[in-house]
Amino acid sequence: MSETPAPPSRTAVVAAAIDLFVANGYDQTSVEQIAQAAGVSRSTFFRQFGGKEDVVFADHEVLLAETRAYLSQPHDDPWAAVCEASVRVFRHFAADPELARRRYVIVREIPDLRDREIVTVFRYERLFDEYLREALPGLDPLDAVGFAALVTAVHNHVLRRLMRGARVPASVLRRALDDVLRRYGVHADGDDASADDLIVAAFPRRMPAAEVTRRLRASLGD
Q1: Which residue numbers delimit the HTH tetR-type domain (predicted)?
Q2: ∠ CA 213-217-218, rounded to 5°
């Protein structure tokens, strides 16, 4: 008795769509062709993705949800948590760079897809911004939005190097994000806890006031 084959994964459908877009052109590829190549019905495709444009950005929808869930967990250092979230997204694309590069080519060629990519990038930035404001009460909004924008920009710069064919391990992004943390004066290096009743603390002048408060409270156990 033969077993019913498992339906193709979302990743397999995305890969089939990207292959067709590269081979035939985005505008010349129909949903029916994608569904046939992926081995799913037209209705299944629409139920999973909604349309051709959605299949190009399917990974981002999943990653945004995963990033939101990750940031909703407790984190001792909100600044580092944002950087780690960025690395997690990068690792997803670095796991299959060829597929990511084919998608990159398609997005660059289609104006509507480029516009949606801009919106998608802003969604990550806004997510980081909102998280920092919630995690650090009293944080100057300019510090939150500036840090979120810089992390996103650095992430995209490193990711574009990967998209253009370079071999870029996640450690490259980590080092770049370490520099971002140092620029904001919020890198964890050099933090020393003290059990003395009298605490003398020195912080970089550029460190946001809300981060100074957070670190003092952590040192005092408040």
Answers
A1: 7-67
A2: 115
- Cα-based distances in Å from 89 to 95, 96, 116, 173, 178: 10, 12, 18, 11, 17
For the chain, where are the alpha helices, taking DSSP H only? 10-24, 31-38, 42-48, 52-56, 58-71, 78-94, 97-109, 111-135, 141-163, 170-183, 209-220
CA atoms within 13 Å, Cβ hemisphere of 122? 6
Token digits of residue 127: 């997510």
Do residues 92 and 59 make contact, with C-beta atoms less than 8 angstroms apart? Answer: yes
**What's the pLDDT tens digit per position in 65-100?**
999 999 999 999 999 999 999 999 999 999 999 989
Tokens in use for 155? Answer: 């992430």
Report d(CA 210, CA 51) in Å as an integer: 44
Chain length of the chain: 222
- Cα–Cα distance, 212 to 179 (Å, whole number): 19
143 touches 208 (CB < 8 A): yes
Contact 147, 180 (CB under 8 A): yes
The pTM assigned to this predicted structure is 0.80
CA separation for the pair 195, 204 (Å, rounded): 22
